[in-house]
Design goal:
alpha/beta; binds iron/sulfur cluster; Rossmann fold; two-stranded antiparallel ribbon; 15 helices; 16 strands; Alpha-Beta Plaits; 385 residues; 10-stranded mixed β-sheet
Length: 385
């Protein structure tokens, strides 16, 4: 920290051009105060990008491979030993995830280890809960989080705090969605858990973000910035400005800050770099999660049933891979006559199937009532301006 303030950098970067990116990432890290002392010659460092599902980089679902490469090159300059890994949504084969995201190629080219997140160690959470997280985490001297800035249909946004949730192994991630079956409960859980799986440094890919119904079914959106800092809460608090949010609008950030896991207050952050000039000009479109958070907690299931807010499978896009069935902890997805469908009454709206589908075939359906409410809200916002 500088004085009482937490440093966050934001650097303008308009492309994934290899040489430009390396210099911009270098600037962002330097402005944010540099890597912590444990990242040094001979130390082993885990890079944790967002590898949500098997999608090509241009869809902006996963951290761009060239972004990962830039951080690898920077760490190689220091002499650190680098490994890369993440636990994706659903039951995709590692080979498919690594190949389709382009991450395998750059890891091979840079000769760094790509590790599957398969082995678990248990951490205790809230006295009686066992959370399986990556066992190999203990083998690394440091973990650097490389989140992709995206909207999120359940938690409004996903950045550094949510990227740490990828350290939870495989199907346990979907399981906890059923333990915390509402956007508020899940956000609270993610914010609290973050304190147990904090990265040592964060470098966020917000060059091409995702707007609309992220993290998988939104649209690429050019924000053209990189964020960096030692405090993931502070980095998130700055990055969400891309969508016009204040940290108080985002529950998992508020909870993490409230627990003392980082600084979220805008005035308590030292903001460094030319990217901050851009922030007020950029406005990515938000997701339907804004509406879900307005539903009173006790009425969440009933109201979402009445408004027919459930995942819908587009037959034309469906590749019949069956991944959504594996991703659903509620057994709400079934296959009949070679068609995949959702049993609405079983669905807890965890969005795991939407996250896991590599073909963007599942989206959150909205009823006419919902469309009417959303349009009304957009109109009100315009009138306020
Ligand atoms: S909707 Fe179709 S393509 Fe998508 S995960 Fe399910 S089976 Fe696969
Ligand atoms: S069908 Fe419902 S419960 Fe099952 S994964 Fe999808 S959103 Fe979650």
């Amino acid at each position: 920290m500088s004085g009482n303030k937490e440093k966050v950098s934001s650097v303008k970067c308009l492309s994934y051009d290899k040489s430009e990116l390396l210099e911009k990432v270098r600037d962002a890290v330097k402005l944010a105060g540099g890597f912590p002392s444990k990242v040094k010659k001979g130390s082993s460092v885990l890079l944790k990008p967002n590898m949500l599902t098997a999608r090509a980089p241009e869809y902006a679902v996963t951290t761009h491979p060239e972004f990962i490469r830039a951080v690898i090159l920077l760490l190689k300059e220091i002499g650190a030993e680098v490994s890369v890994g993440d636990s994706p949504a659903g039951g995709h084969k590692w080979e498919k995830i690594w190949t389709d995201t382009g991450i395998k190629k750059i890891c091979q080219e840079e000769n760094v280890r790509l590790i599957p997140f398969e082995n678990a160690k248990i951490i205790k959470f809230k006295k009686d809960q066992n959370i399986p997280i990556l066992k190999e985490l203990d083998d690394f001297d440091a973990m650097i989080s490389l989140p992709k800035l995206k909207t999120h249909i359940l938690t409004k946004v996903t950045g550094a705090i949510k990227n740490s949730y990828g350290l939870v192994i495989g199907h346990a991630k979907s399981h906890f969605h059923s333990v915390y079956p509402s956007p508020r409960k899940m956000s609270e859980f993610i914010g609290e858990l973050y304190g147990h799986i904090k990265p040592d440094f964060v470098i966020m890919d917000a060059i091409v973000c995702m707007e609309g119904d992220g993290p998988n079914t939104g649209y690429p959106f050019n924000a053209g910035v990189i964020f960096a800092g030692r405090d993931g809460v502070a980095v998130d608090s700055c990055a969400i400005r891309v969508f016009g949010y204040d940290y108080k609008d985002i529950m998992h950030i508020t909870v993490a800050a409230g627990k003392g896991y980082g600084i979220a207050d805008w005035d308590s952050i030292e903001k460094l770099g030319d990217g901050f000039e851009e922030l007020e000009k950029i406005r990515g479109k938000r997701s339907k999660a804004d509406f879900l958070f307005k539903i009173p907690e006790k009425l969440f299931f009933v109201i979402t049933m009445i408004t027919k807010s459930r995942p819908s499978i587009d037959v034309a896009k469906c590749a019949k891979c069956g991944i959504c069935i594996k991703a659903c902890s509620q057994k709400a997805i079934f296959k009949k006559n070679e068609m995949y469908n959702v049993t609405a009454s079983r669905c807890v709206l965890c969005m795991c199937c939407i996250e896991a589908c590599s073909y963007q075939a599942i989206s959150l359906r909205s009823s006419k009532v919902w469309e009417f409410l959303l349009k009304g809200r957009q109109l009100l916002n315009k009138l306020k301006k």
